[in-house]
Amino acid sequence: MRSQSGHVPRTYRIARIAVFTTLSVVGSFLHLPGPVQTVAFDSAPGFFAALYFGPLDGAAVSGLGHFATSVVNGFPLGILHLPIALGLCAAGAVIGFLNQRWNFVSGIVAGIAINTGLIVLAIPALGWAGVISFLPFLLLAASANGFVACVAYLNVRGRLRL
User: How far is CA 58 from CA 33, 85, 134, 149, in A?
Assistant: First the structure.
């Protein structure tokens, strides 16, 4: 929904971010195999929002979605979830930016790389051995989330009016 000037009303954008953040919470209950319970399909709505609506919405949904997932799962990494959520905000913004400038593939690849690279923030909680053993699970989860977001984006781009 855009006004005649092409601007999306603030209330509409906030509602849209809330809906996609809620989808992240729903995705947080769909766990992938991994040693930490927050490995789930919680990033797919943020990745999709970044692709479809742009960097700002992607950043908001990705960051809020991770934070909500952390709350649902009892903060298994403690306070470290805050910088991880900020890192996912950056991932959402980069996905949206690269999609607008080049294509969705470059955006998703960068988002998966950022999402996976955020594992270094867990070193204080998991140690080097824990981080290295967790890395393949996180890469798999980020890739699965990226794949789901891309499939959804390719199926609705140009046709969805949100």
Answer: 25, 12, 25, 11
* Full-model pTM: 0.91
Size of the chain in residues: 162
Contacts of 111 (CB under 8 A, 6+ apart): 47, 50, 91, 92, 94, 95, 142, 146
Helices within 28-118 (DSSP H only): 44-53, 55-72, 81-101, 104-117
Distance linking the first and last C-alpha atoms of the chain: 6
pLDDT tens, N- to C-terminus, the chain (162 residues)? 555 456 788 999 999 999 999 999 999 999 887 776 668 899 999 999 999 999 999 999 999 999 988 888 888 888 899 999 999 999 999 999 999 999 999 999 999 999 999 999 989 988 999 899 989 999 999 999 999 999 999 999 877 666
Residue 70 CA to residue 76 CA, distance in Å, equals: 7
Which residue segments constitute the domains of the chain, with CATH numbers given? 10-156 (1.10.1760.20)
| Residue keyed to tokens 């991770």 | 66
